[in-house]
Design brief:
This protein has 567 residues and is mainly beta. It has two helices and 41 strands. The longest helix has 22 residues.
Length: 567
């Protein structure tokens, strides 16, 4: 009987793995299986932000533009690996590789199978929060939280490109933001943000805890010790102490954590101790990274810096990756929280990233590492996806886990099946997305679709289920048309409201070009019937609805092909 159960489990696992490959396009057929689908021949993204351009021996910040928050980094020999948050987007937890800290290439996603985690109908800013990546004795570890979908867990891999294991849950570790620390004596520890010992004294009162961790069983054990109560000075009522990391240097254990929330009050603080489990004393010159002390209204600001993770180079230097944002006005930004890079200096035994009042630079001196390739996310970007490969590149995402097969790569195109799940339904619609990585960006595609009544296929710009624009080829009671719809908050209907339309006379499914242009706070929507002569459908529409300030949450805006049908 045990052997039979094992056989059934293995068979089911094989089915899930096969389904995962099919859902991600990895095993597409040369002929599409959908009887009726929207066909996208290509998708193009262009970005061009007028910021300082690095010269010889320099690099540009951010090093990962667009929605890549909460970066965690580790070094293995001369190679660096980095992961970021993705919340309820799937695949989740992108894994990047670099040899120089400047040029990053995504090599996979740690959450790549639909059965690893279940995002259900969560909001897009729930799901997987700040991950931590570490390497120990040939194994890579990611410690992470699935908020409202299971709690804290650890996954492992011998190859950082994947596959990564199923989650091992950590029932003794509450709260969020777990991280691992492997000491010189091979003892391992797990840190996390959680509630303080007693009742919270104020809104945002949290604590940092530590406990032993067994790498063999991937479980925590032993007593839990509170290392930080509230923040570095609880008398000032600091909020949201989180994202903890421990580093060892010159016989000291350094505990680094974010404080003040991840908006404009964000900052990074540091404490140290001679023992890994404390007690820890804060530096009297904290914070060692922030932009909260700078005047508002400055030109081309970088704000909200924090959630740093430090890494030591082979030559002994220290550098840090961290999140920050680039607003186009006030605290409005659509590109999400991005990954920045800065050197770390050590002063009298303490780390420093920014001094009081120091502005984070858009251009800096490169790390002393061999340079390979061109910057992965430079000031200018032009990227065209022809959909002619066996699978989508790893940066493409969808809203939550797929539960059925609704897209295929076939005959050199992307085929989307129109389904009743829409952009505003908190589900998994027929929508494939890539990040908006520039304030000034253009997303363009060509779609072949002869819609039935109530069907639509086109190009969406989306921040979450309640804030988006959709330009599509559709068919209404009067015939085929290009239509622009918008949802600008939970009070709008889930299908959105119609803003503009243009009739398509004698339409029979010929290719229609669709283009969305972002200029920071304003978006333009154009279409073309011959691929070259673009016609405006609507111009100067409010781009702030796609900002984190308006829409809330922790993600950034995305563009991508979409298809749906009415119920």
């Amino acid at each position: 009987m045990a052997a039979f159960r094992s056989h059934i489990r293995n068979s089911l696992a094989s089915v899930v793995l096969l389904a995962s490959a099919l859902l991600l396009g990895g095993a597409s057929d040369p002929e599409p299986s959908f009887d009726h689908a929207a066909v996208f021949d290509w998708f193009e993204y262009e970005g061009d932000d007028p910021l300082p351009v690095p010269g010889v021996g320099e690099y540009a910040n951010p090093v990962l533009t667009g929605f890549y928050p909460d970066p965690s980094i580790t070094r293995v020999g001369h190679d660096f690996y980095l992961v970021t948050s993705t919340f309820s987007w799937f695949p989740g937890l992108p894994v990047f590789h670099s040899t120089d800290l400047v040029n990053w290439r995504q090599i996979g996603n740690a959450i790549s199978r639909p059965d690893q985690l279940d995002f259900g109908r969560l909001g897009l800013s729930r799901g997987v929060f700040a991950p931590t990546i570490e390497h120990h004795q040939g194994t890579f570890y990611i410690a992470n939280t699935c908020v409202d979908c299971g709690g804290n867990f650890v996954i492992t891999a011998t190859d950082p490109a994947g596959p990564w294991s199923d989650p091992v849950w950590l029932p003794q570790v509450g709260g969020i933001d777990p991280s691992l620390f492997f000491d010189d004596d091979s003892k391992a520890w797990i840190l996390n943000n959680d509630a303080p010992k007693g009742p919270a004294l104020y809104e945002g009162h949290r604590a940092i805890w530590i406990q032993r961790f067994d790498p063999a069983t991937r479980t925590s054990f032993g007593p839990r010790t509170m290392l930080i109560d509230g923040g570095i000075d609880i008398s000032t009522k600091p909020i949201w102490i989180e994202g903890p990391h421990i580093y060892k240097k010159d016989g000291w254990y350094y505990l680094s954590a974010a404080e003040g929330g991840t908006a404009e009050g964000h900052r990074q603080v540091v404490l140290r101790s001679r023992k890994v489990d404390g007690p820890y004393e804060p530096w009297d010159q904290n914070p060692y990274l922030t932009q909260r002390d700078l005047p508002p209204g400055r030109k081309d600001p970088i704000t909200s810096a924090g959630h740093a993770d430090l890494v030591q180079l082979p030559n002994g230097e220290w550098w840090a990756t961290f999140l920050a944002v680039r607003p186009y006005e006030g605290d409005y930004y659509n590109t999400g929280r991005e990954t920045f890079l800065m050197p770390v200096s050590w002063k009298e035994g303490w780390p420093r990233i920014t001094s009081p009042g120091e502005v984070l630079p858009y251009v800096g001196k490169r790390p002393p590492l061999p340079s390979r390739g061109t910057p992965s996310n430079g000031r200018r970007m032009s990227e065209r996806e022809e959909f002619n490969g066996p699978s989508l590149p790893p940066h493409w995402m969808m809203m939550r886990n797929p539960r059925e097969r609704w897209f295929e790569l076939a005959k050199g195109a992307l085929w989307l099946q129109p389904r009743t799940t829409g952009l505003g339904d908190f589900g998994n619609p027929s929508f494939l997305a890539r990040r908006q990585q520039h304030m000034h960006a253009v997303a363009t595609t060509s779609v072949r679709f002869n819609p039935k009544l109530g069907e639509r296929a086109g190009l969406a710009a989306l921040q979450n289920d309640e804030y988006w624009y959709l330009m599509s080829v559709t068919r209404g009671p009067s015939g085929a048309e290009v239509r622009l719809e918008r949802r600008a908050g939970p009070k709008d209907p889930a299908k959105g409201i119609v803003l503009a339309s243009a009739p398509l006379k004698d339409f029979a499914g010929a290719p229609v070009g669709l283009r969305i242009r972002s200029g920071g706070a304003a978006y333009d929507f154009d279409y073309a019937l011959d691929g070259t002569n673009w016609r405006p459908l609507a111009t100067g529409l409010d781009g702030k609805i796609l900002s984190t300030k308006t829409a809330g949450g922790f993600v950034g805006a995305v563009f991508g092909p979409y298809a749906s049908r009415d119920r």
